[in-house]
Design brief:
This protein is an alpha/beta fold and 174 residues long. It is 35% helix and 16% strand. It has a 5-stranded parallel beta sheet with strand order 3-2-1-4-5. Strand 4 (112-117), helix 6 and strand 5 form a beta-alpha-beta unit.
Length: 174
């Protein structure tokens, strides 16, 4: 793990630990049922059929992947978080091809007909060069003519509605 920090004191590789055991608790409302419409919309938009190979980039716990697998058995989920991939494996079982890798160095070249990036999982890096490396890795992973779907936040809306601090309890604490 990298110990370097940016000017705000945030570790450069904050994402290496941020998507661990608390993630499923913090985002409990982001489950497979809530991802059904999102997955259907994206797969329909990209015209995914059962013959195509698709990548669910930064698949997390597999909540979108479970629905992509209904469109094509050739769906692959990739994430950096070993913890979230374990959740995905439990939910998806043996039908899922899951890979742990860094999106800046995808282990594919010319494989996918479509790549999906759901739930704002792009541009997490402090350096533009790292974001460019991730984009280049995605481009290399796709076949010529492949399609790309990115679900990303709306910056003006976030700026207007951001709550600077919130707290939530889950269960009983003693």
């Amino acid at each position: 793990m990298n110990d370097s920090r940016n000017s705000s004191g945030v570790p450069e590789d904050w994402f290496a630990t941020a998507f661990g055991p608390l993630y499923p608790i913090l985002y409990a409302h982001r489950d497979a049922a809530s991802a059904e419409k999102e997955s259907a919309f994206a797969a329909s938009l990209l015209q995914v059929d059962s013959t195509q190979r698709v990548l669910d980039l930064c698949c997390g716990n597999g909540r979108h992947m479970i629905h992509l697998l209904q469109r094509t058995p050739h769906a692959v989920g990739l994430d950096f978080s070993a913890e979230l991939l374990q959740h995905a494996q439990r939910m998806l079982g043996t039908q899922a091809a899951l890979i742990r890798a860094d999106m800046r160095a995808l282990p594919f070249q010319g494989v996918f007909d479509a790549v999906f990036s759901f739930f704002t999982s792009f541009a997490y890096f402090f350096e533009d060069a790292e974001t460019a490396a991730a984009a280049a890795a995605m481009a290399r992973a796709m076949k010529p003519g492949a399609r790309f779907f990115m679900d990303y936040l709306n910056p003006p809306h976030v700026a207007a509605t951001l709550v600077p601090r919130s707290e939530r309890g889950d269960g009983e604490f003693r």
